[in-house]
Amino acid sequence: MKTTTRREVLKVFGAFAALTSAGGALAPLARAAQIKPDAKSVLIVVDVQNCFVPGGSLAVQKGDEVVPIINKLAKVFDNVVITQDWHHPQHVSFASQHAGKKPFETIKLPYGTQVLWPDHCVQGTDGAALYKDLQIPNAQLVIRKGFRQNVDSYSAFVEADRKTPTGLAGYLKARGIKTCYVAGLATDFCVAWTALDARKAGFEAAVIEDASRGIDLQGSMAKAWASMKTAGVKRVQSADFAA
Ligand code: VGL
Ligand code: ZN
After folding, report:
1. Which ligand lies nearest the alpha carbon of 120?
2. What average pLDDT does the segment 95-108 reach?
3. Do 26 and 54 have their domain in common?
């Protein structure tokens, strides 16, 4: 009986690697698998605002790194929607509104557990403005969320009471959109909730991982990716998109 030596196995593996690497014979196949957004796809750019980038009041680590990636991605989409976290000055999600409470602790509200945050994205302030380097002139809608004093909204589709729609699903459906690509800040909060609610509203959904950054509060990053996987949210990279 002929036994396959380690050397032979390595040789075969090496040949396959050469074929599939850039420029190899199979490279065109790999390229064909790339995502080409069409008229039925939308890029949802979540909360790329001053408060969430380094130096902001609720800074997401390396949050600014998503900006050049998103600017480039937005150019290949026919449809781009931008979200803005947009809170009442005494918003219920602010730790400052709850005596004895500190940021990142939780409280119970009528609609469930609420994480308390530092004051951020107060309506009309510089902190709530879109980050200056975000350049998406072709964006067609800016949707603001979390503007009611007593209800938060991580999701761009439904407020934290899980009942009140923002209108985004209706807008996208009326425009014939089938697939939502979600990117921005923060992966484990507003990006994840938006992608999960996109699925609930009947859209295909994917999160562009390297075009997003997370807060990662007590395992929230792993939890978010797990729930997204269960819900059928795809996990893609900016390099998967045809340039
Ligand atoms: C966000 C916490 C509080 C987000 C917004 O954009 O992910 N996180 N408000
Ligand atoms: Zn917020």
Report:
1. 2
2. 98
3. no
Cα separation of 28 and 197, whole Å? 35
Whether 227 and 112 share a structural domain: yes
Q: How far apart are CA 181 and CA 35, in angstroms?
A: 11
103-152 tens-digit pLDDT: 999 999 999 999 999 999 999 999 999 999 999 999 999 999 999 999 99
**Cβ of residue 190 lying under 6 Å from some atom of ligand 1:** yes
Residue type, 156: A
**Separation CA 11–CA 33 (nearest Å):** 27
**Amino acid symbol at 25:** A
What are the CA-CA distances from residue 37 to residues 77, 208, 210, 242 (Å)? 6, 13, 17, 8
> E strand or H helix at 180, and its extent?
strand 179-185
| Residue ranges in 44-84 assigned as alpha helix (H) | 66-74
Domain that holds residue 8: 1-32
pTM metric for this prediction: 0.88
> How many domains does the chain fold into?
2
Amino acid at 64: D
Residue 53 CB–ligand 1 contact under 6 Å? no
Q: What Rg do the C-alpha atoms of the chain give, in angstroms?
A: 21
Point out the residues that are catalytic.
47, 145, 190
Q: How far is CA 10 from CA 4, 13, 17, 189, in A?
A: 10, 5, 10, 44
- Report the distance separating Cα 139 and Cα 3, nearest Å: 61
